[in-house]
Amino acid sequence: MNPTGVELRNLTQDLGEFRIENASLKVEPRDYFMVLGPTGAGKTILLETIAGIHEPDSGRIIIGERDVGNVPPEDRNIGFVYQDYVLFPHMSVRENVLYGLKARNIPDPEAKARDVIDLLGLGDLVERYPRTLSGGESQKVAVARAIAYRPKLLLLDEPTAALDPQTQESVRSELGKLHEKLEVTVLHVTHDQAEAKILGERIAIMMEGRIRQVGEIDEVFNKPIDESVAGFVGVENVLSGEVVDHDGELARIDVGAFQVNAVTEVDQGTVQVYLRPEDIFLTDQSGHTSARNTIPGTVVSVSHLGQVYRVRTDKGLNCYVTKQTVEEFGLEAGKKVFTAFKATAARVRSQD
Amino acid sequence: MKDIRLTAPFSLLALVLVLFIGVPIANIYGVQLFQDFPGLVRAATDPAVYQSIWLSVYASGIAAFSAFLFGTPLAYILARKDFPGKTLMARIIDLPMVIPHIAAGIMLYGIFNRSGMVGGLVDEFLLFEDALPGIVVAMLFVSLPFFVNSAREGFESVNPRLEHVSRTLGQTPWKTFFKVSFPLASSHLLTGAILSWARGISEYAAVAIIAYYPKTAPITIRDRFTAYGLSSSRPATILLVTICLITFILLWSFAKSHESDWR
After folding, report:
1. Is the pTM higher than 0.80?
2. Domain-ending residue, one of A178, A202, A228
3. Would you call B169 and A86 a contact, using CB atoms and an 8 Å cutoff?
4. Which residues, 6+ apart, have CB-to-CB distance to B42 below 8 Å?
């Protein structure tokens, strides 16, 4: 069966606590599409509404060629995996996987269940009941149950959020492989940027019930549409400025405290410059690097984020450095440093 | 050292309650078995006694089944749906627990007597006054809240997402109810049915108003107590209590074993 795309047109849904406002979105067949948003953004409601659990207040949902407005969930031919897996506790793993095959009267359900059990390596667990499974195992069973009848569209609601980091990693690679193997369209919601980057092809940012930005992963992560999206996708440096010069490839942009050299087609007017903190590095002398931008400053703060340190300078720039760099440069408040970044690291969006 | 500042006084108070329930039961068995065993044998072979006990068990069973049949959909709706008047509906279901049962009997008699709103309507083929249907109606009225509340709690304990997933997997709402919601709530449903069955057996006042005859066990016991006193009513009491206890233990252990493989 060919995978189908899904399209939302001006979807609005108000469930009191959670809501969706005027969401429009197009997921192409075979896409691995991510919806990234903070907790409480309405992501689960979005998936449940696509699945037909809730009837939208207004707007349309088109799965494939079909407007599914009045189609009940059981006839939408989708697979659904919840964050908390919700396996049927009174059924064994095998019965859980068989459930959808039997409900749909698919011929030879036992063989089809075996296929998917083998595909996901669940062979040893078939007679076990869900309460005896680990989080990772439950997650796989939930995926197996959802794909056993080969739905055209797979909806994943934070499928790794309840797992430990190692398991998350293996589940992500598993999901990626399954997507290729099964040729299914995936719509995956998450609050985890890393997950979105690893798995996603196209992405939508959802905040407070609204779809804020849709695009290719790189586009969204590097050129967020506004400051709230920028903050959410980890673009910690958003600078407003004016293009003062453009040589056909490189623009010089005055952002007040300093000037930025950026590769962009925007050759005039008011702009915003986006810089990811991991794209900025520190040196202790000017001209020591090949980067087009070297900006002198004084360290205002150094904070430990677990894996890396965030260094903030008096020019308002945040950058991430390693522990080694902190020790090598003796980084602390008051230390004079140069922040440097490449002309390609600065992403420019025209504000005119 | 273990800190017993809270647990010691609490344990003491708890013990008082356990004794309060345990001692009268132990006492009545002790007195009967050791002081008047032949009296017990006489009661057990007295048709008036064992027929009345059987009637109680049987009528109450019908009442509990009716509570199950009508109460399950109601409990499901209360657990799952939001609608105007829901709270009022839930309070109405609770009313039999706060209405004095003698008053419940009077109210039911008003409806179900031979010329009452319902009793008059079905007069030709169904008699409530002094008949089994009257006993069942009285038992159902007083025991319904026990079933509905327990069943509602059961359905509330089932994650609605299980039903959602079942639907996305291709199951209709009806089949989802019977394959997911019902089995997962079944221990609560069974508990509710047991509670309402027990409540029905124990009912005296409401039953006595609408159907004094045929005599249920509580009415037989009350009759003997009034006419002949404690020693005469005790053997029938013991038989009734024993049958109830055995049945409860069987049903509880069935309920437990039935879910032990997955819970």
Report:
1. yes
2. A228
3. no
4. B235
Domain contains A1:
no
Side by side, the strands of the sheet bearing A259-263 are A259-263, A250-254, A237-246, A269-275, A347-350
CA torsion B167-B170-B171-B172 (nearest 10°) is 80
CA-based end-to-end distance of chain A = 46
Is some CB atom of chain B closer than 8 A to the CB atom of A50? Answer: no
- Cβ of A86 and B261 within 8 Å? no
Question: Can you give the pLDDT of all 352 residues of chain A as single tens digits?
Answer: 577 899 999 999 988 888 899 999 999 999 999 999 998 888 999 999 999 999 999 999 999 989 998 899 999 999 999 999 999 999 999 999 999 999 999 999 999 999 999 999 999 999 999 999 999 999 999 999 999 999 999 999 999 988 898 889 988 999 999 999 988 999 999 999 889 999 988 999 999 999 999 999 998 998 898 888 998 888 999 999 999 999 989 999 999 989 999 999 998 899 999 999 999 988 877 666 778 899 999 999 999 998 899 999 999 999 999 999 899 888 899 999 999 999 999 999 988 7
The reply to whether A143 and A18 lie within a common domain is: yes
In a domain, A221, yes or no: yes
Closest residue, chain A, to B165 (C-alpha): A80
ipTM of the complex: 0.86
Number of domains in chain A: 2
Looking at the complex, report in whole angstroms how far the Cα of residue B75 sits from the nearest Cα belonging to chain A.
21
Is residue A18 included in any domain, yes or no? yes
The reply to whether A51 touches chain B by the CB within 8 Å rule is yes
